[in-house]
Design brief:
heterodimer; A: alpha/beta; eight-stranded mixed β-sheet; 35% helix; B: alpha+beta; Ubiquitin-like (UB roll); two-stranded antiparallel sheet; 3 helices; 32% strand; binds zinc ion
Chain lengths: 249, 96
Amino acid sequence: MAGEIRLTNQDRSFYEWQLDVPGMGEEGQSKLRNTTALVTRLGGLGGPIAFSLAAAGVGKLILAHGGNLEPSDLNRQILMRHDDLNTPRAQSAAKTLHSFNPHIELETVESHVTADNAHGLVSKADIVFDAAPRFTERFWLNEACVRSNTPMIDAAMYSMEGQVLTIVPGVTPCLACLYPEEPPHWKRRFPVIGAVSAMIGNMAVLEGIKLLTGVGKPSLGEMLYVDTLTMGLRKITISRRSDCHVCQP
Amino acid sequence: MESEIPITMTYAGQLAGIVGASEETKPVPQGTALTSFLRDTANRHGGRFQELLFDENKQLRRALVISINGEHALDPEALSLTRPCEIFIMTPIAGG
Ligand SMILES: [Zn+2]
């Protein structure tokens, strides 16, 4: 982790209810305080992810999201504000986060993840939260994380279902082990209720917090699948592909 | 005589929507190859269901998530159904 920022009395006053969570304490909070997390993107999943990371006191958030805010974003992108329509989404999200928690550092990147910027973005982070709506972006991030040995929490949803995969390079399978090729049927536009994406996003945050602090047990090697139509939670044991072109030597 | 075993298919979101149910159970002869069972299942449901499972060369799509009793089936072509089990199948999702 970069830096050794100690908790201040002000930090303790903000997070005192969280410090009481068994296993968290000052040590766990300090780990969060000293963590830089990359969140990409900041939509229905990434917005709640960034919000909950800010609430938890993660010291620095790198917020990557391109494009301007559109009316159709507002059923789920909870960091955005109506007043910011037609302005950069990353800025709108950063404003909301800053007013919510001005004591964490925010860096905005007004771009989605690309093949060119993935490694640079990942290299600045201790952990990555992947909430991109295209498989290509997810694959670039996965590869950059595996190459740099950076953990990545991959969160995805569609309509009333969602999944979370915690990837720790060298320990767990990677995203390419789960999806060895780009699915041809995936379309950029997908049905979404904001509550579903927020739920899946918050599950991803919990996986990240557990990984960072040692609280509880992250789901290593298991994909969490949620069906909100029935409120069913399923854990699927995922294996590493011996021919994975990303995580195998 | 070949004995039959019950196989429960559990479908995730898109597939459940097409089938109109999230679960169905079918008896199959013990030892049936998994891909053969999935091909029969796809033929039975046809259309979009079939497209999501099999490519234009009638090969099982590699990006499907298939698990048997909670274990990811990495190489479905190599598996046979030798005992009653639950097969969970989902199409890849990336909504963000
Ligand atoms: Zn892999």
